[in-house]
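Supplementary notes for students who missed Thursday's class. We covered one full example, reproduced here. Read the sequence, then the structure, then the short commentary at the end.
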Amino acid sequence: MNQRYFILVLAHSVHGRLRRVHIPQRVVYGVLALALLGCFSLFGIVSSYVRMAWKVADYNSLRSEFNTLRARYQNLQNSANQTKEQLATLQVFATEVSIAYGIKQKLEGTTDISSEGRLIPTFSESLAEYNFLKGASLSKLRRRYPSYWQTNVRPDMWPVNGRLMSHFGRRSDPFSGEWLFHSGVDISAATGTPVQATADGVVVHAEYSGAYGKLVIVDHGSLQTYYAHLSRIDVVEGQEIRRGEIVGGAGATGRATSSHVHYEVRQNRTPVNPYPYLKTMVAQEFKEEDLPF
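Structure (token representation):
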């Protein structure tokens, strides 16, 4: 017998007999190969199960995150819808106010409101409507009698009680020391002191303006008056104002060294000497020859 084999000896525990079992080597190698193949198969099955479990956990995490994002999106959409409804309500209210005060003569569009389509205005339309309402005067008396405003259109009073700090014309700049043209006069006043309009007119500018700081410009027809470096502004653009009414408070905003009012008179947008317009209302303590212009 040339075939190689293994001998397995079995001994009986009672009779003491020995029994030999011949196991060919090919059978042993085959069993080992099958065992190794089984181990590889088991490893593959376990690794596949682990990968599947990881993918399931990742899927569950992504699904939970998706549900959270969908809930947030729904909340944002509800908030956007509420905002659009509020804007539509404000638009309708603004239109009603315009009609009630005669700013607009009639509703724009067809008589059937349902045929106009969307009631929700855009942001730019809402902003334009707000600026229009803010700048419009609601005084019926002033609209009915516009000629009344022609009685006090010449500036003839001081905007604030105080002393002259700087005159009109060529002067030394307080910051650079260079000689520059000063387009108005500076009148000293404590911060917050009420500043008065020197004539009847319409406010055409009421906001911060570079070196002027907080600036109010009142148009009187061919003349305009400037009130600069204010600490506050009490008027809005488009507002009709009478001589003596408050336009703001004295201050030091913009390019200023101390609290005062920079006052200008311009004719056709060109600065002119304010002296002829202040002369008739010069305070008692000033003498004409003491004025620096």
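Commentary. Residues 132 and 199 are 24 Å apart (CA to CA). The mean pLDDT is 79. If anything here is unclear, bring it to office hours.
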